[in-house]
Amino acid sequence: MDAISDGAGSDSEAISIAVVSRAELAGCAAWQSTFADERKDHRYYEILDDTVGNFEYRYFAFIDAHGVVRAVQPFFLVDQDILEGLAARRVRWLLLVRRFYPRFLILRSLMVGCAAGEGHLATSDALPASALARALSDGIVAQAKLLRAQLIVLKEFPAAYRGVMSCFTRRGFARAPSMPMTMLDIRYDSFETYMEKALNSSARRKLRKKLSATAGVSDIHMSVTDDAASFVDEIYPLYLQVFERSKMRFEKLTKEFFRELGQRMNDKVRFFVWRRGNTLIAFSMCMVQGESLYAEYVGFDYAVAIDLHLYHYVVRDMIRWGIDHGYKWFRSSALNYDPKLHMRHRLDPIDLYVRHTSPLANVLLRLALPWIVPARYDPTLKLFPDYRTLW
């Protein structure tokens, strides 16, 4: 992704921020156009608000001197475990403290961004990125204190924002990498051509061996639709199987989330479904944006998934579909990096900007943050040629 430019408009005009509820945004033109160019536009945030209830959703309204709302930036409140995602052996001495103080390093946090995905600044022609970032960095600490939040996190903003968001680091925020997304160039005539040109002989041989696990299985077939309402009861247990196996968890989606996506965002959502005979054995919820196909969430029936190497099977099918439909990039959410490394994905860095509302605690946090992010300790990430771009 290219760096985010400041865009049009003046950033000298006084902009104030205020916390508003979802109900107060009804009929707000700025909200209706928020993230219009992104796959996860304002409708996605409304769906999360309606269906995923383990967060307190709020919104910052950016108001000009005439009282006009120029932009709306979503955020949410959550009790965040600072040690989440770190192996117990790395934080053993900190976990001992929790025997006496159970909420040690579990902080009420104000998180700017998306509860289920990467974050973006809600810029527009009326309010360029520099003005929005500056207004937010100027006022967010005071807003966090009013909301009784101890920690402020700008959650998973793409690296393209680093220049625009440097105002946050000047305001005492520390930047560190979150677990990155990945991207794969699929500008090939076919999946087979991609394997021949993008993979070395060893990677091709290993991939073909994994795909051969389904070579003799003739009753697996894929279908693609923009609405999961008719089979959501089948895909949701498969999503839960993957969720429960994950070592890193943040958002736990609901059945209603998947149902509403197809009902309210079918222009940007694609559900890939694999059945063996009449039994659904895998699915992937993808989103489309420009020249990219984004793999967001998957589900597998692990009674058959491991023996059949279904992960590689479904990725191959999604890439084939993407190539056939003219997409140039296959993008994937975080984790499961080993197969992505061998398939020649590139890292797509996303950053955390973190600050404690207490100046003293923030000094300690800024020193500790680079050492407590899981991205530092993932051994597979370090094997990617572009690992340094995370930092």
List keywords for this structure.
single chain, 391 residues, alpha+beta, Aminopeptidase, 2 domains, seven-stranded mixed β-sheet, 12 helices
SSE arrangement:
Blueprint: E1 16-20, H1 29-32, H2 42-51, E2 56-63, E3 69-81, H3 92-97, E4 106-112, H4 129-146, E5 151-158, H5 166-170, E6 174-177, E7 181-185, H6 191-198, H7 201-211, E8 220-225, H8 232-245, H9 255-264, E9 269-276, E10 279-289, E11 292-300, H10 310-324, E12 329-332, H11 337-342, E13 346-348, E14 350-356, H12 359-372
Q: What order do the helices and strands follow?
A: EHHEEHEHEHEEHHEHHEEEHEHEEH
- List low-confidence stretches: 8-12
Biggest sheet strand order reads 1-2-3-4-5-14-6
CATH class of the largest domain: Alpha Beta
Shape: globular
CATH superfamily of the largest domain: Gcn5-related N-acetyltransferase (GNAT)
Share of helix among residues?
25-40%
Number of domains: 2
| CATH topology grouping of the largest domain | Aminopeptidase
Instruction: Give me the secondary-structure category.
Output: alpha+beta
Instruction: Count all strands and give the number.
Output: 14
Structure description:
It is a single chain. The chain is of the alpha+beta class. The chain folds into two domains: 16-179 and 349-390, Gcn5-related N-acetyltransferase (GNAT) (Aminopeptidase, 3-Layer(aba) Sandwich); 182-347, 3-Layer(aba) Sandwich (Aminopeptidase). Helix content is 31%, strand content 25%. The chain contains twelve helices and 14 strands. It has helices at residues 29-32, 42-51, 92-97, 129-146, 166-170, 191-198, 201-211, 232-245, 255-264, 310-324, 337-342, 359-372; strands at 16-20, 56-63, 69-81, 106-112, 151-158, 174-177, 181-185, 220-225, 269-276, 279-289, 292-300, 329-332, 346-348, 350-356. The two termini are 16 Å apart. Mean pLDDT is 91; it is low at 8-12.
